[in-house]
Amino acid sequence: MLYFSKIRIFLITLFTLLFVYIFLSNFIKSDDFIFNKKINLGLDLQGGSYLLLEIDNSPVIIQKLQNSIPTFKKYFKEKNIKIRNFKIMEDKFLIFEVNEDKISQVKEILEDKEDNIINQYYPSYKSHKFDFLIEKNLFKLNFSKYGLVEIKNSSQDQALETIRRRVDEIGTNEPNILKRGNDRIVVELPGLDDPSRIKNLLGKTANLSFRFIIQGSEETFGSEKLEFEDESEEAIVSKRIILSGDNLIDANPSMDAQTNETVVSFTLDRVGAKRFGKATSTGIGKRLAIVLDGKVVSAPVVRDAIVSGSGQISGDFTFQEATDLALLLRSGALPAPLNIIEERTVGPDLGQDSINAGIIALAIGFLLVIFFMIIKYRIFGLIANITLILNLFLLVGILTLFEATLTLPGIAGIILTVGMAVDANVLIFERIKEEIVGEKNQLIAFDSGYVKSKTAIIDANITTLLAAIILFFMGSGPVKGFSVTLGVGIFTTLFSVYFIARLLTSIYVTKNKHKERLI
Amino acid sequence: MIKKLPFNKFYKLFNSISLLLIILSIFLLFFKGLNFGVDFKGGTLIELRSIDKSITVTNIRDSINQINLGDVSVKKFGKDDDYLIKFEKKDFNNPNFIKDIKIKLTSSLGDTFEFRRVENVGPKVSSELLKSGIIAICLSLAAMLFYIWIRFEWQFSLGAIVALFHDVIVTLGIFSLFGLEINLSIVAAVLTIVGYSMNDTVVIFDRVRENLKKYSDIKIFELTNISINETLSRTIITSATTLLALFSIFLFGGEMLKGFSLAMILGVFFGTYSSIYIANPILVFLQVSQKTILKEDKDQ
User: Fold this and answer.
1) What is the rounded CA–CA span in Å between residue A87 and residue B289?
2) What is the pLDDT of residue B1?
3) Are A506 and A518 in contact (CB under 8 A)?
4) Whole-angstrom Cα distance, residue B208 to residue A306?
5) How far apart are CA A160 and CA A171, in angstroms?
6) Beta bridge partner(s), residue B84
7) Quick one: pLDDT at residue A342?
8) What is the ipTM of this complex?
9) What is the nearest CA distance from A104 to chain B, expressed in angstroms?
10) Domain A212-315 falls in which CATH fold?
């Protein structure tokens, strides 16, 4: 165990120096360095906001059920089967009636293992889009597991895009927007200590539509009663959408020259401009409601046909409100409402305080351990300490190389590694002390000390590694950072003990083999 | 070598004490319960720093109570001018919720404070976090049980797992007794304790196994004592360096790491104790002998 070939010594030195170099690249600002990588600081250290958003898919599910009704009607009509009385119940069931004699035929179609347009993806998932129940002549359909997964995935993709556009518009530095599961999205905003504006912007679906207001006071089949945003009045609004947010290509806050009011002016795409022109030319004198997320923002009276493809939305906005509305319209609508289910915000000075405290604790812990080892083991304590310092460089170097995120618990993990890393060396030294009793050749004692302590060291480290791995997969956020440093620390500890410390011990022992009582 | 200490003389005494501690802890966990933080209970936490020295806990509590947030707790947090405000939140979907509180506080306290940290955990997330925390701890115990079973024999595995169970339960019992807060970092600490305690047990077990091979005529009762003594100096030194590191986190690492390092300190203490006084007596109880480990060799 004490013999090292020249090539091995060279490799160990090279490897160690490499990581010392990477470690140092964290502290030196220079483009000359091959490695200009740096450890990322977690939000708890650099300050910032973490938001966990959950997509409320129930409106999407209802919408999809609603949209499937015409498809069903058409499909069964072609097959000469009459189905009627479509209903949507409990926000998830699509219900229709069939004549008694056709029940088995409809059942067969719904169970068909070939792809058919109303109940696809059997071939790919061995399951259908809809599950169904039959009660007398009533069919009760709901989305199957795979049907729901597909809906959730697509609304998550859309939501992610829209959120990214909205966050980018605000211009925070290096936001991190990630999917989690199939109905959640994580938004990390470094450096942001007041997330209320972003929360406001993400809290709105921004579903915009232009629709005419209908005279009368009762809802009919093609209209609905909507409230005004300022709760001043209610109006019966047609369900026919003239323009939607999709037709907008740009929106900006501006000042109306005549009324001196803050408005949002918008530009339409070609299709939108055409439709808007046609609708406004036939609808002169009617009120056109601008509906945002189910509420009427304003409802101006159409005076002229607007064919220019641009227009204004007024609604007693402050400049900030107009800016935000324009931003929402530019970035497009969310497929479904979002709920903020977790929020963690750390101010930048608390982050800095945590870094300072962490560094002080690390320095003190380090010094205490180093003193302890020197007093206990003298020259071998020195070897253990050199190993410990290099171990720290290796650990931080590897974290840098992988651009890992360092969190406050992560710093605690490093300090803990310092305390626990000497364990392997202690095990070896104590074993050597035992072996040296009654052994004339001290080199043999050193050698068997290393050999015999090996299983205990490996087993002891693997148990800690297991705990770190479980923590990595089950933990969240800052705690994950802890598991990373703890886990990486085990590997660097084993490397530094078995290569660096053993090399140093070997050099010292072979040079001083004639001394009495080496350890 | 130092004189051999008769650890095995006290097996019975400490086993009874440990049993009592476990029963007390379970009793506490059942009847007093744990003081879960917002991570696991849901709700809102605000860390506030005041610039104005005249602001007191009562001040803050009075102005917060005007907002009608239900059960609000206001506490000092570390330094003199830092406070922690906690409440179970109702109005989760109002994005301006925190802003409103800030405005209302400013109107009664003046513009003499800042929010340093805001944590807001919805009921769904908190119950998920609690669930995954419990799963993580159980999973780590199972992983250890399995690992030791592979590397040693089932008797060793049982001894180790009972020791771990003791460490986790008693540490949580102490947290319950003093009403210390359980949050995500405490779960991390408990898992690290599991790793550490295991570490300690494995080192002694490794020596027990070695000695079992070496001496066929020494009874396990005496053999565990020899093994404990042989590894004792390592046990003490490693606990000492680990505790040095942990105490420096506890004293200098800031308020956020206090609970974590305290749990770890307790864990290191109990972990070291349980390796000696729980894991080993179980080997004695199960009458482990040379046959136990030789059987393993024949199988291979």
Assistant:
1) 74
2) 45
3) no
4) 91
5) 17
6) B47, B75
7) 92
8) 0.90
9) 43
10) Gyrase A; domain 2 (3.30.1360)
Strand (E) or helix (H) holding A306: none
pLDDT higher than 70, residue A358: yes
- What's the pTM? 0.87
Interface-testing mutation among B248, B250, B269, with chain A (most A C-beta atoms within 10 A): B248
Q: What is the mean pLDDT of residues A262-291?
A: 90
The tokens describing A28, both together, are: 């030196």
Q: Does A430 touch chain B (CB under 8 A)?
A: yes
Average pLDDT of span A348-376: 93
Answer whether A99's CB lies under 8 Å from A82's CB: yes
Set out the domains of chain B in order of their start, with CATH numbers: 7-37+125-299 (1.20.1640.10), 43-121 (3.30.70.3400)
Q: With a cut of 50, list the residues of chain B below it in pLDDT.
A: 1, 300
Task: Please report the number of interchain residue pairs, chain A to chain B, with beta-carbon separation below 8 angstroms.
Answer: 229
B162 and B144 in contact (C-beta within 8 Å)? no
pLDDT for res A196? 85
Task: Identify the band that residue A1 occupies on the pLDDT scale cut at 50, 70 and 90.
Answer: low
Burial code of A476-486, b = ≥16 C-beta within 10 A, e = fewer?
bbbbbbbbbbb
Q: What are phi and psi of A439, to 5 degrees?
A: -120, 120
Res B300: pLDDT:
45
pLDDT at A284 > cutoff 60:
yes
pLDDT for B34: 94
Distances, alpha carbon B41 to alpha carbons A200, B130, B181, B191, in Å: 25, 8, 11, 20
Distance CA B113, CA A132 (A): 59
Q: Is B296 on the interface with A (CB under 8 A)?
A: no
Phi/psi for A262 (5° steps) reads -80, 130
Q: Which two tokens stand for residue B221?
A: 């009762």
Find the helix or strand (DSSP H, E) in which B205 lies: helix B184-214
- Integer Cα distance of A48 and A352 in angstroms: 12
Q: Tell whether the model's pLDDT for residue A167 goes beyond 70.
A: yes
Name residues 70-129 of chain B within 8 A of A (Cβ).
92-93, 95-96, 98-99, 114-122, 124-125, 129
Q: Residue A167 and residue A192: Cα distance in Å, rounded?
A: 12
Residue of B96, B136, B233 with shortest CB distance to A196: B96
**Interchain CB contact of B231 with A (< 8 Å):** yes
Burial of A269 (0-12, 13-18, 19+ CB in 10 A): middle
**Range with the largest mean pLDDT of A125-139, A404-418, B83-97:** A404-418
- What is the distance in angstroms between the Cα of B47 and the nearest Cα belonging to chain A? 9
Count of other CB atoms within 10 angstroms of residue A194: 15
Neighbours of B243 (CB within 10 A): 18
Answer yes or no: is pLDDT of A490 > 90. Answer: yes
- Interface check for B1 against chain A (CB to CB < 8 A): the answer is yes
Helices (H), A34-193: 43-46, 58-78, 103-111, 122-125, 145-170
Asked if B145 has any chain A CB less than 8 Å from its own CB, the reply is: no
How far is residue A457's CA from residue B203's CA, in Å, rounded to a whole number?
7
Q: Does A427 touch chain B (CB under 8 A)?
A: yes
* pLDDT value, residue A27: 80
Among B153, B244, B255, B265, most A C-beta atoms within 10 A, so best to mutate, is B244
Pair type for strands A184-190 and A48-55: antiparallel
Instruction: Determine what percent of chain A falls in helix, strand and coil, rounding each to the nearest 5.
Output: 50, 20, 25
- The 10s digit of each residue's pLDDT in A65-123 is 888 888 888 888 888 888 888 888 888 888 888 888 888 888 888 887 776 777 777 77
Note the CATH architecture for domain A6-46+347-511. Answer: Up-down Bundle (1.20)
The residue ranges of every structural domain in chain A are 6-46+347-511, 58-146, 212-315
Query: Which of A343, A370, A484 is the best residue to mutate to test the B interface, defined by the most B CB atoms within 10 Å of its own CB?
Result: A343
Residue with tokens 């925190």: B98
